[in-house]
């Protein structure tokens, strides 16, 4: 297969954009100070020239063209289907990230695009419009174009600007809201106030774009968990986003927040305390028609997923079911979840998994360097298992 050029990619995308083509519009994060975030630390923010982005889009089109030609050689008459893409992946030897990005995107239907990195909305609206129009002209079949946007930036955009972007194809904004409690936002250096969060969210909703707000259970620590839950829900009540997604806090050693943990100034709540916090958060959500989603692997209860207000009681019932489990079952569920064996509380009924996980717990309990491990040491082990996922 002939060479198609390099496509620049950023490091992350939201879990819901796993099927999306990634187009890097800016590099890194213009704020880069949030203490619970490690993704872009040490990296400088920069804009990519519109011409460079358009060239990447053209490269994607060129890769599609090469795959189409390859399809003819396989007897599929230019059709790009899963058999062709599997063969391209196996035979072409093109396993670099640009090709993988395109192959994976086409394999999943080729209908969604995610614009990287942390705050595409920083780009001048006219430049973003030019880029979106080019993308749509090369791939008219695209159904959804989405991006991360910082609340502070979106609070300053006019609804008319956002409407123009929507008309050009930008259909969903993901905002990392994390919390709606001002002292906490300041404490973790989020660089945005609750009022700005409201304005940003309302701007997006009024523009007609779909809005996904990310909330971070655990971020309030043991000190502010109540305020975090209640104030975050109150902010969301004023926004009424389409989606509210959970992404539970995990404090890695390379996050600035870890220094506060080391000084014992910040204490992450236990898994069970975070479940209680989420209960209070959901209880406080009122008057909105949002879908709650728990699709991040760091979340303990993937089942807290449903439409408000109609499924509110069912969501609270999932939480109550978990909290009512005997201690040993909750421990088994947490270990099973962190090991990737469990997705729902129903999975606790699987006898084979149950035996396997119980054995792992018993081994962990008995394998301390100076005799059996204490419950605190076991807790640390379970917590460390989360690091595998970020
Ligand atoms: S704005 Fe987002 S990407 Fe930037 S530092 Fe904060 S959490 Fe990380």
Largest sheet: 8 strands, mixed
Number of strands: 10
Count of alpha/pi helices: 15
Write the H/E string, N to C.
Answer: EEEHHHEHEHHEHHEHEHHEEHHHH
Strand content: 5-15%
Q: Helix/strand/pairing class, anyone?
A: alpha/beta
From the N-terminal CA to the C-terminal CA, the straight-line distance is 35 Å
Mean pLDDT reading: 93
The main sheet orders its strands as: 1-4-5-6-7-8-9-10
Low-confidence stretches: none
Q: Approximately how much helix is present in the residues?
A: 40-55%
Shape: globular
- Which cofactor or ligand species appear? iron/sulfur cluster
CA radius of gyration: 23 Å
Give an overview of the whole structure.
It is globular, with a radius of gyration of 23 Å. It has an eight-stranded mixed beta sheet with strand order 1-4-5-6-7-8-9-10. Helix 1 runs parallel beside helix 4 (125-138), helix 6 crosses helix 8 and helix 8 packs parallel to helix 9 (225-239). It starts with 20 loop residues before the first strand and ends in a 5-residue tail after the last helix. With 390 residues, it is α/β, with parallel strands linked by helices. It has 15 helices and ten strands. The mean pLDDT is 93. It has helices at residues 50-73, 82-91, 97-107, 125-138, 151-156, 159-167, 182-187, 194-207, 225-239, 257-262, 271-284, 312-323, 327-338, 351-366, 375-385; strands spanning 21-24, 26-27, 46-47, 112-116, 144-148, 170-178, 210-215, 243-246, 291-293, 306-307. Bound molecules: iron/sulfur cluster (SF4). The site of iron/sulfur cluster (SF4) has 11 residues, from loops.
């Amino acid at each position: 297969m002939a060479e198609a050029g390099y496509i620049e990619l950023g490091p992350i995308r939201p879990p819901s954009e796993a099927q999306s083509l990634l187009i890097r519009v800016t590099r890194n994060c213009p704020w880069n100070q949030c203490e619970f975030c490690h993704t872009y630390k040490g990296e400088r923010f920069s804009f990519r020239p519109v011409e460079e982005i358009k060239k990447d889009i053209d490269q994607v089109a060129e890769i599609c063209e090469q795959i189409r030609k390859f399809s003819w050689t396989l007897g599929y008459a230019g059709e790009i289907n899963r058999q062709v893409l599997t063969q391209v992946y196996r035979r072409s030897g093109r396993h670099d990230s640009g090709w993988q990005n395109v192959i994976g995107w086409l394999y999943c239907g080729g209908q969604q695009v995610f614009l990287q990195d942390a705050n595409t909305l920083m780009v001048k609206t006219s430049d973003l419009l030019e880029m979106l129009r080019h993308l749509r002209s090369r791939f008219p079949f695209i159904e959804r174009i989405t991006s991360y946007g910082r609340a502070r930036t979106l609070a300053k955009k006019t609804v008319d600007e956002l409407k123009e972007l929507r008309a050009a194809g930008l259909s969903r904004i993901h905002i990392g809201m994390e919390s709606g409690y001002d002292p906490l936002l300041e404490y973790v250096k989020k660089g945005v106030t609750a009022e700005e969060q409201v304005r940003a969210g309302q701007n997006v909703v009024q523009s007609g774009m779909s809005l996904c707000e990310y909330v971070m259970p655990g971020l309030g620590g043991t000190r502010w968990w109540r305020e975090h839950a209640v104030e975050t829900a109150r902010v969301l009540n004023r926004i009424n986003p389409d989606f509210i997604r959970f992404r539970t806090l995990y404090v890695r050693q390379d996050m600035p927040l870890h220094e506060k943990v080391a000084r014992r100034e910040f204490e992450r709540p236990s898994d069970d305390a975070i479940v209680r916090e989420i209960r209070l958060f959901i209880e406080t959500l009122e008057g909105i028609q949002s879908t709650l989603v728990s699709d991040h692997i760091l979340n303990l209860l993937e089942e807290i997923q449903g439409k408000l207000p109609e499924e509110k009681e069912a969501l609270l019932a999932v939480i109550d079911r978990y909290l009512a489990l005997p201690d040993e079952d909750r421990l088994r569920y947490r270990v099973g979840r962190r090991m990737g064996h469990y997705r729902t509380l129903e999975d606790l009924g699987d006898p084979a998994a149950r035996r396997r996980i119980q054995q792992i717990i018993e081994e962990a309990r008995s394998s301390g360097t100076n005799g059996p491990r204490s419950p605190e040491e076991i807790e640390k082990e379970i917590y460390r298992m989360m690091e595998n996922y970020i």
